[in-house]
């Protein structure tokens, strides 16, 4: 069973920064596409950013220029650096991994942006 564990969430004022991490026990992590999604209560899950096994990155329009996704396959970890945070970035953030037919989600971690 693939396990993904997020860390690094919390509360920050508008304009501030937070960094999320997602560590995996998956031995195929370096072959997987990994991504971040976010979801507010009552809303659909929204794509945030993805990084492929070839280190190609893609971002959702709301976070372009403010968030940076990266990965370190030596330690099976993915990161999301979030800068210039806005109140509308407040959400539960989920780590996601996919390789061939295997898909896994983390348990989610709260990010709150408020003055």
What does this structure look like?
- The strands form two sheets. Strands 2, 4, 5, 6, 9, 10 and 11 form a seven-stranded mixed β-sheet that branches.
- The chain is mainly beta and 115 residues long.
- The protein has strands at residues 4-7, 10-12, 18-24, 33-39, 46-51, 57-59, 67-72, 77-82, 91-99, 102-105, 109-113.
Task: Quote the average pLDDT.
Answer: 96
Global shape? globular
- The helix/strand series, from N terminus to C terminus, equals EEEEEEEEEEE
What's the total helix number? 0
Q: What helical percentage do the residues reach?
A: under 10%
CA radius of gyration is 13 Å
Largest sheet: 7 strands, mixed
As a percent range, the share of strand residues is: over 45%
List the uncertain runs. none
* First-last Cα distance: 40 Å
Structural class: mainly beta
Number of strands: 11
Name the features:
11 strands, 4-stranded antiparallel β-sheet, 115 residues, mainly beta, 7-stranded mixed β-sheet, single chain
What would you say about this model in short?
By secondary structure, this protein is mainly β.
Sequence-ordered SSE layout with sheet pairings:
Layout: E1 4-7, E2 10-12, E3 18-24, E4 33-39, E5 46-51, E6 57-59, E7 67-72, E8 77-82, E9 91-99, E10 102-105, E11 109-113
Parallel strand pairs: 2-11
Antiparallel strand pairs: 1-3, 3-8, 4-5, 4-9, 5-6, 7-8, 9-10, 9-11
